Amino acid sequence: MSNALAPYRRLTIKIGSALLVDGTTGRLRAEWLASLAEDLAALKADGRSLVVVSSGAIALGRRLLGLDARALPLEQSQAAASAGQIALSQAWAAALGAHDIVTGQILLTPNITEERRYFLNARTTIATLLGLGAVPSSTKTTPSPPPRSATATTTGSRPASPP
Q1: CA distance 98 to 30
Q2: Structural contact between residues 136 and 104, judged by C-beta atoms closer than 8 angstroms
Q3: How do residues 82-122 score in pLDDT, each as one tens digit?
Q4: Which residue, among 1, 105, 3, has the nearest Cα to 47 in the 3D structure?
Q5: Does residue 151 sit within a domain?
Q6: How far apart are CA 80 and CA 62, in angstroms?
Q7: Which three-class secondary structure string do you get for 109-150?
């Protein structure tokens, strides 16, 4: 059986919150994450560079802060993301650290695609982490809506890469 990933040197792994967080308890699915980390360690040992993009910050933060509602008001959603971001980052660091893999947390915001210097800084940081053998990790959360006074140009789609 051939390995479908064989031609690729760098992989970006996107993990959704439904895989990481138990929908009933709101707790991290630690055994599942440990199993995934083992698979990622094998890919890394095979010479691949890895980047992890992970959802789950709001789901974890909801439990940490004792918020029961599925649909949270914006301020509670942001608070849950804030608390969950730390827990999620620690979980990735522990899971990959068990395989002697260092993680580096990357904060990616929409302005990174809008302003070239931010894009270049983020790209350089990711490349440096990869060059040092670390796994850059970024959490994905649903973006906050723009302020009510925002114009149509700030609420429209954002470019995929800087000009």
Answers
A1: 13
A2: yes
A3: 999 999 999 999 999 999 999 999 988 888 888 999 999 99
A4: 3
A5: no
A6: 5
A7: CCHHHHCHHHHHHHHHHHHHHHHCCCEEEEECCCCCCCCCCC
153 in any annotated domain: no
Q: What is the pLDDT of residues 122-160, one digit of tens each?
A: 999 999 999 999 999 998 765 555 555 444 333 344 444
Within-domain flag for 147: no
Joined together, the tokens standing for residue 50 give 């890895």
Count up the domains in the chain and report the number.
1
pLDDT in tens, 20-66: 999 899 999 999 999 999 999 999 999 999 999 999 999 999 999 99
Query: The domain that contains 109 carries what CATH number?
Result: 3.40.1160.10
CA-to-CA separations, 88 to 20, 117, 124, 131, in angstroms, rounded: 9, 28, 23, 23
C-alpha torsion 15→128→10→40, nearest 10:
-50
Domain housing 106: 10-140
